[in-house]
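User: For this week's homework, look closely at the record that follows, marking any run of repeated tokens, and judge whether sequence predicts the tokens.
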Amino acid sequence: MPRLPLNRIAAPLCLLASLAGLASCGVSQRTPAEPATPPRTSAVYVLTPGATVALAPNASIKLERVNDSRCRTGAVCVWHGYISYSFVLRTKAGSTPFVLAEQMPGAANSATQQGLRFTLDGMEPAEPPAINTAVPDYRVSLKVELTQAT
């Protein structure tokens, strides 16, 4: 097998090393700029009674209690009842209590407080519990949206 002169092997290796060095110094092809990621303006949180969730460094939401007056499965009732959720929003401006409900007279499933919109997004259990059963473990999904710059 014929031997290649050292300069014929070393020249391509030196060229590769030089290109690698240039790339590490910032001399490389430009890639198009990626679009900026939009700021997060909404999120969904799942809360249980007594639970608090941090929304921002100086803001939190707490599910104070669940009021379930729905007619229990298997019971005879004069009205169907409703389920409502009592929340407290805490910010550096203070505490603001509010109630959300699907079918409660005088209440709504969404409310705006201190530049944030809160909307019921789901609940467990969705149906009233059966008669003569223990109080269920309630969970509510709450959608929180930024409505104005804070």
